[in-house]
């Protein structure tokens, strides 16, 4: 007869609640414990979002900024995918807060006023322009490695622009409506380098491509 603890671990609903208390790294490694653990993690939308393997679009928009809205503050900060720091220590996606200047409305333009401003969260990531990135652990090179399916951040960003200093490409270097994964960035950058698709003026002094992308958010009512 199975022990009470064993019986609990056989119930996917209860096992999911327990696994949600693990760190991202421990949750990923828990797939090796048993077939039950692996099946629960693979079939749980909540656990897949925790591992950045499924998108989570529930992020409140940061809202307006400026003198007209002096009490408005940024919304919750999106999550960095910390597992990518271990896999690619030199090319880790980071999230930063920026203020975006909107184009003036016809009424604002007619009176000579500037457009409004609003908060925005951007993801920034780099990729070597001349070689493959340094991998922090040997398992990163496996074709079936989990990082290939992981989003850069949560919620994901849907487009990435090449940037250098204060210059940003007019068109996105990469667009994925469902969100960009690290594997898509990796393959896209390697392919663009081989084809010469991206202008060399965007290669930085440290011989990297640098990308910026706005993180999509939802309004409170969505």
From TrEMBL:
Q: What is one Pfam family matched by this protein?
A: F-box
Q: Which residues form the F-box domain?
A: 11-50
Which species is the source of this protein? Friedmanniomyces endolithicus
Against SUPFAM superfamilies, the record matches this protein to: F-box domain
Q: Indicate what this protein is called per its UniProt record.
A: F-box domain-containing protein
């Amino acid at each position: 007869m199975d022990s009470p603890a064993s019986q609990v671990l056989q119930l996917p609903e209860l096992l999911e609640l327990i696994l949600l208390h693990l760190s991202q790294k421990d949750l990923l490694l828990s797939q090796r414990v048993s077939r039950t653990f692996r099946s629960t993690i693979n079939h749980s939308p909540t656990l897949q979002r925790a591992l950045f393997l499924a998108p989570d679009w529930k992020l409140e928009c940061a809202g307006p900024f400026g003198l007209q809205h002096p009490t408005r503050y940024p919304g919750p900060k999106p999550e960095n995918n910390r597992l990518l720091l271990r896999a690619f220590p030199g090319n880790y996606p980071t999230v930063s807060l920026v203020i975006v200047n909107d184009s003036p409305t016809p009424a604002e333009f007619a009176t000579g006023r500037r457009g409004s401003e609003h908060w925005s969260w951007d993801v920034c990531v780099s990729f070597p322009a001349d070689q493959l990135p340094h991998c922090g652990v040997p398992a990163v090179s496996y074709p079936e490695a989990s990082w290939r399916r992981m989003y850069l951040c949560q919620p994901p960003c849907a487009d990435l622009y090449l940037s250098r200093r204060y210059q940003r490409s007019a068109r996105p270097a990469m667009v994925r409506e469902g969100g960009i994964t690290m594997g898509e960035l990796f393959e896209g950058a390697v392919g663009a380098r081989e084809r010469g698709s991206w202008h060399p003026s965007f290669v930085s002094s440290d011989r990297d491509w640098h990308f910026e992308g706005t993180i999509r958010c939802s309004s409170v009512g969505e």
